[in-house]
């Protein structure tokens, strides 16, 4: 099974938000998933995402591919961790 870490759309019209999920790459965007890894709210100001970096690292270690948008969130999260350390 090819696992992908990608966004799953939630929310209602004009108030979209997303969950970051690990899912089978063949599953539909809003379909079945393996695990929720965080969330992303593009309309929120400031800190508009949260990720469980430990679980993301686990899935990447298992060979999961990361979508472009989730990849940019991961870069932001890693940058924020190194800036505070």
Give an overview of the whole structure.
The chain is an alpha+beta fold. It has a single domain, classed as Ribosomal protein S16 (S16 Ribosomal Protein, Chain: A). Helices cover 31% and strands 36% of the residues. The chain is built from two helices and five strands; from the N terminus they run E-E-E-E-H-E-H. A five-stranded mixed β-sheet has the order 4-3-2-1-5. It is flat, with a radius of gyration of 13 Å. It starts with a strand and ends with a helix. The mean pLDDT is 91.
Keyword list:
S16 Ribosomal Protein, Chain: A; flat; 85 residues; 31% helix; alpha+beta; 36% strand
Strand and helix map with partners:
Layout: E1 3-12, E2 15-24, E3 35-40, E4 49-51, H1 53-61, E5 65-66, H2 68-84
Parallel strand pairs: 1-5
Antiparallel strand pairs: 1-2, 2-3, 3-4
The number of helical segments is: 2
Q: Beta fraction of the residues?
A: 35-45%
* Alpha-carbon distance between the two ends: 36 Å
Q: Into which percent range does the helicity of residues fall?
A: 25-40%
| Beta strand count | 5
Q: Could you tell me the mean pLDDT? A: 91
CATH architecture: 2-Layer Sandwich
Radius of gyration: 13 Å
CATH C-level category: Alpha Beta
Which descriptor suits the 3D outline? flat
Question: Do you know the CATH topology?
Answer: S16 Ribosomal Protein, Chain: A
CATH superfamily, please? Ribosomal protein S16
**Main sheet properties:** 5 strands, mixed
Numbering strands along the chain, what is their spatial order in the largest sheet? Answer: 4-3-2-1-5
Secondary-structure-based class equals alpha+beta
Number of spatially distinct domains: 1
Oligomeric state of this protein: single chain
The parts where pLDDT drops under 50 for at least 5 residues are: none
Q: Secondary-structure element sequence?
A: EEEEHEH
